[in-house]
Design goal:
The complex is a heterodimer. Chain A is of the alpha/beta class. Chain A is about 50% helix and about 20% strand. The radius of gyration of chain A is 22 Å and the shape is globular. Chain B has a 5-stranded mixed sheet, covered by helices on one side. Chain B is elongated, with a radius of gyration of 33 Å. The chains are: A alpha/beta, B alpha+beta.
Chain lengths: ~325, ~500
C-alpha cells in the first residue's frame, strides 16, 4: 500500500500498543502505590493531605497517590473497578456500604457541610416554599441524601418538587445564573454561591436543623477483598490517616491553606469549610468506638437510607464497620472490640 | 488535549462539508460530528466527576481555567446523556450510511432499505437510552441486577455495527479496479478506521448512560481509566495525525469522484516511459515509410503503367499512407507519455472507429454490443489499440489459408469492467509463445507485415486506461483478446 499503508500500520500499531500497555502499566503501578480517592473539598481531602504533607504515610512505609473526585459515586465506581484502593465516602454514597460493595475502615467527621440554598428572587424563604420548585442536586451524593432528609422532615412529598440531577459545581453555577430555583449542595460550593450572590443567597435548610435527629458520618472505605488481602497495609494507612486528622484538628487554618493550594482553589473559599463538620481525631474516635456512639450514628444513617424500602435488610454494623482494622490502628491493641 | 482532537475533527469536518459536498463527505462529516459530541460529553463528564491525576488533567484539558469552565458549566446529567447518546447514534447511523454509499451492487430498493436500517439503528439507540425513556426501566430490579451485563451487550452491539461497516468498506476497497482510486480509498479507510478506534475508546469503553443514578455502572466504565500520560499522548497524537491524513485523502478522493462524474472534464494521465527503444524504432520505421512514400511517388511519375498497374500502385500508396499515419500516432504515443481521458458515453463508438480504419479487410468484422457503460478513455489511442487487435486477428485468419474467417468484437459488462472482447478463428498462438506476445519486438508473424510492437502498444494504452488485457488462444482454432477497462458510472 506504500506510504498510506505505513501510516495505517503506525497509527493502528501505536493505538494497540497504548491499549496493551494500559493494562501492564497500571498493574505494575498498583503493586507499588496505594491509590486513594479524595474529594475536592476540605472534608473529603484534609485528613489525607495532612498525612501526605507531614509524611505520616511515609513513616508507615506507604507510598500514597491521591486522586481527586468531585463526589462519591464515581470514586466508589473507580474503587469497584479496582483503579482505586481506598476512598473517602460522604453520607450520600453510604448506600454502597449497605450494598456490601465497600466497608468502612475509618470515620473522619460528622458532616455539617450540606445546605439547601436558593436565591431571594426565587421566593423561597422556608422549606415549605420548595413545593413546585426545581431543585438541582447530584444523585447518589450527600446533596441528594440531605435534600431527601429535608423533604421527609418537613413533610414535603418528593413528587411535589422537580429534582434535577446535576453535578455539584454545575448546580452551584445554575443557581447563580438563575437556571434553577434551589440547590442541595455542600461546601465549598455553598461558599462559592454565597460569594457570588452575596445577600441574594438564602440558606433554606442546613445540617444544624437535624443535629438532634440525624448524624451524618463521613468515612474512609475500601473493598472487602482489598482489606482482607492487604490487612497490614490498610491498618498502616488508617494509623497514618488518623495522625493526619490529629494534625488537622490542631492546625485547621493552616490546613485550609494547604487544601486550597492542593485543590487549586482560593483560600477564602476553603477557610469557611473548617466550620462545616465536627472533626474527629484518634482519641475521640477511640472513645466513640468504646462507648458505642459510632455504632449509633451508623445505625441512624442506615435507618435513614432505608426509609423508602418496604423491607429493608438489616445490617449488623460489624458487617461493614471494620473495627478489626480501626481499633488496632488507633489503640495498638489487636482486639477489634 | 482531548479538545485538540475535537478541534481537529471540527476543522476537518467543516472543510469536508464546505469544500466537498458529495454524499461520502457528508456521511464522513456526520461521523466526525457524532464523535465530537461523544468526546465533548465524555470530557465534561470526566471533568465533573474527577478522578484524574494532575499530570493527566493537564494533558487532557490544557489548563485549570478550562477545566474549571467545564466543571462549573451548568448542564444536567440528563443533558450530558442526551449529548452522549445523540453523538453515538449519529456516528453509528452515518457510518452505516457511508458504508452503504460505497457499496456497488445493491439496487435502489435494497439501498433504500439499508439506509432506513441505518437510520433505524441510530434512532433505536437514541430512543432506548434517552433519559425520559431510560428512567422507565433503569430502576427496575431486573435492570439494576444486570445493569453491567446489559451495558456490555450494548457495547457488543456497537462493535458489531462497526465491524459490519468496516467489512463493507474493506470489500469496496478490494473491488476498486483503478489503482489510484483504490489507493485514495485506502486513505479514507484509514480515516474511517481511526474514527472507529476513537469511537471504541470514548463511546464503547466509556459510559453508556449517565442521566440516572443506578449504581456504579451508570457513570464509570472500568475499561476507561488510563491514568498514564503516555498512553493518552499516544492516543491523542495518533488520532490527530490520522484524522488529518484521512481527511486529506477524503478530499482528494471526493475531488476525483467529482471530476469523473462530470462529463467533459478531462484528466491527464501520465503513461510510463515504457521503452526508449520503441520510440527509436518507430521513429526509424517512420523515416523508412517516408522514403517509401517518395519512392512510390517517383515510381508513379517516372514509370508508365496500365490501368491495372495504376490501381495496384494506388492501393500500395494507400496502405503506405495508412501505415505512416498510424506509425506517426504510435511514435507520438510513446514520445508524449500522456493521454487525455474523457467521458466516453458509448465505448462501442471507439470500436466502430477502429473497424473503419481497416482498409479493405479480407474477412468479415462483426460487432456485438450486449451492454455498455461510460468509460474514461482517450478515444484516439484506445481506438488505435482496438484496431491493432482487430488487425492481428485479420492477419491471423489470412495466414490460415482456406478458412472462412471472421472477427467478432463483443462489448459487455463484467463486474466493475467494460469488456472489449476481440476474437477470431485464425491460426492461433502456440501456448509457449503466449507469455511473450506483449514483449517489445516479439512477433510470430511475417516481418513484412508486423514489427512486433503492436501488442506492446496495446498493452501500454490499456494500462493507461487503468485497465488490463489478457489473451486466450488455441492453435488452429483461434485467439481471443479481452480488454477490461473500468466503467465509472451508469447512465
Amino acid at each position: 500500500m506504500g506510504k498510506e499503508g505505513l501510516a495505517f500500520g503506525i497509527v493502528t500499531g501505536l493505538i494497540l500498543t497504548a491499549f496493551c500497555t494500559a493494562g501492564c502499566g497500571s498493574k505494575q503501578k498498583r503493586e507499588e502505590v496505594i491509590r486513594v480517592a479524595c474529594h475536592t473539598n476540605f472534608g473529603g481531602s484534609s485528613a489525607a493531605y495532612a498525612a501526605l504533607d507531614n509524611h505520616f504515610f511515609e513513616r508507615e512505609g506507604l507510598k500514597v497517590e491521591l486522586l481527586e473526585f468531585s463526589s462519591g459515586p464515581p470514586a466508589i465506581a473507580a474503587l469497584e473497578a479496582g483503579d482505586v484502593d481506598i476512598s473517602f465516602l460522604g453520607h450520600g454514597a453510604f448506600t454502597y456500604v449497605l450494598e456490601g460493595k465497600v466497608q468502612v475502615i475509618a470515620v473522619d467527621s460528622l458532616s455539617n457541610a450540606e445546605e439547601i440554598m436558593a436565591t431571594k428572587e426565587s421566593g423561597i424563604k422556608k422549606p415549605e416554599d420548595l413545593i413546585g420548585k426545581t431543585i438541582a442536586t447530584q444523585f447518589g451524593t450527600s446533596g441528594e441524601n440531605f435534600l431527601k432528609a429535608a423533604l421527609v422532615s418537613y413533610g414535603i412529598p418528593e413528587d411535589e418538587v422537580t429534582i434535577l440531577n446535576m453535578d455539584t459545581a454545575g448546580a452551584a453555577m445554575a443557581l447563580m445564573k438563575g437556571k434553577v430555583d434551589a440547590v442541595s449542595i455542600w461546601a465549598p460550593y455553598t461558599n462559592e454561591v454565597r460569594k457570588a450572590l452575596g445577600n441574594n443567597a438564602v440558606t433554606v435548610v442546613d445540617c444544624m436543623d437535624f443535629r438532634d435527629t440525624l448524624a451524618l458520618p463521613m468515612s474512609w472505605v475500601a473493598s472487602e477483598s482489598y482489606i482482607d488481602s492487604h490487612k497490614d497495609t490498610v491498618e498502616k494507612f488508617v494509623r497514618a490517616l488518623y495522625a493526619g486528622m490529629d494534625y488537622r484538628n490542631e492546625n485547621l487554618e493552616q490546613m485550609a491553606k494547604l487544601v486550597a493550594g492542593r485543590l487549586g482553589m482560593e483560600v477564602e473559599l476553603i477557610e469557611p469549610d473548617i466550620k462545616t463538620a465536627v472533626w474527629f481525631d484518634s482519641h475521640s474516635v477511640l472513645s466513640y468506638i468504646e462507648d458505642g456512639t459510632i455504632a449509633r450514628w451508623y445505625k441512624e444513617l442506615e435507618k435513614f437510607m432505608n426509609r423508602d424500602a418496604e423491607k429493608a435488610e438489616e445490617h449488623r454494623i460489624q458487617e461493614y464497620l471494620r473495627l478489626d482494622i480501626l481499633y488496632p490502628a488507633l489503640s495498638g491493641k489487636k482486639d477489634g472490640g | 488535549m482531548l479538545f485538540l482532537i475535537i478541534l481537529v475533527l471540527l476543522v476537518t469536518m467543516v472543510a469536508i462539508v464546505f469544500i466537498e459536498r458529495g454524499r461520502l463527505a457528508i456521511w464522513a462529516a456526520g461521523m466526525e460530528a457524532g464523535l465530537i459530541l461523544v468526546i465533548l460529553a465524555y470530557a465534561v463528564i470526566w471533568i465533573k466527576n474527577g478522578g484524574i491525576s494532575r499530570q493527566i488533567s493537564y494533558i487532557l484539558y490544557f489548563s485549570d481555567s478550562m477545566k474549571r469552565f467545564f466543571q462549573y458549566y451548568p448542564v444536567s446529567y440528563a443533558g450530558l446523556s442526551k449529548l452522549l447518546i445523540f453523538g453515538k447514534s449519529l456516528f453509528l447511523c452515518c457510518m452505516m450510511l457511508l458504508s452503504i454509499n460505497v457499496l456497488d451492487t445493491p439496487g435502489r430498493l435494497k439501498r433504500r432499505l439499508l439506509a432506513v436500517t441505518a437510520v433505524g439503528v441510530g434512532a433505536l439507540n437514541y430512543g432506548m437510552l434517552h433519559p425520559s425513556v431510560y428512567e422507565w426501566y433503569c430502576k427496575t430490579e431486573m435492570f439494576q441486577e444486570r445493569q453491567g451485563d446489559i451495558f456490555h451487550v450494548i457495547r457488543l452491539l456497537y462493535m458489531v455495527n462497526l465491524a459490519v461497516c468496516l467489512f463493507m468498506i474493506a470489500g469496496k476497497s478490494q473491488s476498486i479496479k483503478i489503482n489510484w482510486v483504490r489507493r485514495q480509498f485506502q486513505y479514507i479507510s484509514i480515516l474511517i478506521l481511526n474514527l472507529s478506534v476513537l469511537f471504541i475508546i470514548f463511546a464503547v469503553l466509556g459510559p453508556i448512560q449517565v442521566s440516572h443514578f443506578t449504581g456504579s455502572h451508570y457513570i464509570y466504565s472500568n475499561f476507561l481509566y488510563f491514568n498514564s500520560q503516555w498512553i493518552w499522548l499516544i492516543i491523542i497524537v495518533c488520532s490527530v495525525i490520522s484524522i488529518v491524513i484521512g481527511s486529506r485523502a477524503l478530499w482528494n478522493y471526493s475531488r476525483l469522484a467529482k471530476k469523473i462524474g462530470r462529463p467533459g472534464i478531462t484528466i491527464d494521465k501520465k503513461l510510463k516511459d515504457h521503452n526508449a527503444g520503441v520510440k527509436m524504432y518507430t521513429h526509424g520505421m517512420k523515416n523508412e515509410l517516408l522514403v517509401l512514400r517518395a519512392m512510390l511517388r517517383d515510381f508513379s511519375e517516372e514509370v508508365p503503367l496500365n490501368v491495372a498497374g495504376k490501381e495496384k500502385l494506388a492501393a500500395m500508396t494507400a496502405v503506405s499512407e495508412s501505415m505512416l499515419l498510424r506509425m506517426d500516432d504510435l511514435y507520438h504515443a510513446f514520445k508524449n507519455n500522456s493521454m487525455v481521458l474523457e467521458d466516453v458515453k458509448k465505448p462501442s463508438d471507439i470500436v466502430k472507429a477502429a473497424i473503419l480504419k481497416m482498409v479493405n479487410p479480407s474477412v468479415e468484422i462483426g460487432l456485438d454490443v450486449s451492454e455498455e457503460y461510460p468509460i474514461l478513455a482517450d478515444s484516439h489511442h484506445l481506438s488505435e489499440a482496438i484496431y491493432n487487435l482487430i488487425k492481428n486477428s485479420v492477419d491471423s485468419i489470412e495466414q490460415k489459408a482456406g478458412t472462412d474467417g471472421n472477427v467478432r468484437v463483443r462489448l459487455y459488462i463484467q463486474g466493475q469492467n467494460q469488456i472489449f472482447e476481440v476474437s477470431d478463428n485464425g491460426e492461433g498462438i502456440p501456448e509457449k509463445s503466449l507469455p511473450q506476445i506483449f514483449d517489445p519486438f516479439y512477433s510470430s508473424k511475417n516481418s513484412k507485415k508486423s514489427w512486433g510492437i503492436g501488442l506492446l502498444y496495446v498493452e501500454q494504452i490499456v494500462r493507461g486506461h487503468f485497465g488490463e488485457i489478457s489473451v486466450e488462444s488455441s492453435v488452429g482454432e483461434g485467439t481471443t483478446f479481452y480488454v477490461a477497462i473500468p466503467w465509472y458510472r451508469k447512465l
